[in-house]
Amino acid sequence: MAHTEEPLLRVSGITKSFGDNRVLDGVDFEVGRGEVVCLIGPSGSGKTTVLRSLNALETPDAGVLEFAGGQRIDFGARQSKQQRAALRDRSAMVFQHHNLFPHLTVLENVIEGPVRAHGVAKVTAVTDAERLLDRVGLSAKRDAYPHQLSGGQQQRVGIVRALALQPDLLLFDEPTSALDPELVGEVLIVLKELADEGWTMVIVTHELGFARRVADEVLFFDGGVIVERGAPKQLFAQPRNERTRRFLDRIL
Ligand code: ADP
């Protein structure tokens, strides 16, 4: 998709090694406002490491992130604590395993971030949380504990917890891969609704059918580089690269 306006995020030259293992080797891409970008590719190709870098959970050896509005992080240079915190505040991550606090209720899990990290008044955070829980059909579960919910419900609470932080960018790390197959659909429906509402999302996923329906752009990773990128229609139907073709042949 061609962008006339400044992208929400521009990622340039991300490089990362773990010891001698170079896992990312110059990754560049852009995320436009309201766009959904899906990262696909074989296991170990670097997708999660890229995603975690966007949220300061991983620190690349080199590369630059530029957010609209002028925030710039150069991983080649030293960053202050404030810069890392500012980077973390731009986005919210939904993990493969929901990472809910087991000793807190659903509602308490959702308001924890806004109240503790953002200093939002508790009464405001509760009102926001109730609205968001209603949106994903979980109002009735507000006082339940995570272990009383199904895996799909837990993951939907995980998504609400990310939304409650009101980030510019939502990051999803294989949000359905820990779920039983019959629970995947309800989580993908929520993701599709968020996309339709205009949330900007970067999603690492093995759900290629989902990526085909929802992504504006698909990035195919292999060996720490983006081997091919494009609109899903083109990339899935007519992959140009041999490695993309082989991957899709195996999966589809
Ligand atoms: P993907 O998400 O595509 O499966 P990852 O980004 O998780 O790939 O991993 C890319 C490579 O980096 C893999 O070889 C993985 O073993 C390695 N890796 C990821 N995290 C670490 C870490 N903390 N320490 C050492 N190696 C890591």
Automatic annotation (TrEMBL):
InterPro entries: AAA+_ATPase, ABC_ATPase_HisP-typ, ABC_transporter-like_ATP-bd, ABC_transporter-like_CS, MetN_ABC_transporter-like, P-loop_NTPase. It is a peripheral membrane protein. One of its GO terms (cellular component) is plasma membrane. Signal peptide: none annotated. Keywords: ATP-binding, Cell membrane, Membrane, Nucleotide-binding, Transport. It comes from the Bacteria. PANTHER family: AMINO ACID IMPORT ATP-BINDING PROTEIN, L-CYSTINE IMPORT ATP-BINDING PROTEIN TCYN. This is Amino acid ABC transporter ATP-binding protein. It comes from Microbacterium protaetiae.
